[in-house]
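To make this tangible, we now present a fold written out as tokens:
***
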Amino acid sequence: MAQMQLLPNNLADGDEVYTPDFAAKDMVEFFQPFGKMLEPCSGDGAILKYLSNADWCEIQKGKDFFQYTSKVDWIITNPPYSQFWKFLEHSMSLADNIVFLIPCYKVFNSVKTLKAIFKWGGIPHMRIMGTGNSLGFPYGYSIGAFYFKKGYSSSISYSFLGAHLTPLAPDSLKAGVLSLPESVKVENALPAVSG
């Protein structure tokens, strides 16, 4: 009997972009996932090959992520961008640590999305990988590996994958911490999510 698929096989334009090897390797080496891991969009295995003993899903191979219900410690993937929220929401139900390789605007383009992320936890780190074009993707948006963590409520740190900085980028851009000034209260900037 065929497995029911909740994500259509006809992905939106730009959804099927394969993770370059250097980005997959950097994501795993930088975030160092451990314990029970899942790669829910394994594609050609770029990320999966760097994860020891990880479980995987791939809609094109008949293993639908939305049918996966086992709890894991880490999810690390390059999800279909048109399904970003749906993938993040399901990931949050399965794991306490999530790393998505996504266009940076996907995280910040909706207050509703930010409220949901901060209600669940937070973003300890964002690793900017470069532009989509520098990763071989068919667009120029900046791409980042975003680390979402359940229960996290501190500052967001960031780093840039050095090979993709322009020669003119100052050293101060290579890594840092984003913090609100003490005069700005998060409660005033983002109203609490009712729930």
In short: Residues 1-11, 163-174, 178-195 have pLDDT under 50 and may be disordered. The radius of gyration is 17 Å. Strands lie at 37-39, 55-56, 72-77, 95-103, 121-131, 142-150, 156-160, 175-178. Residues 21-189 form a domain with the Rossmann fold fold (CATH 3.40.50.150).
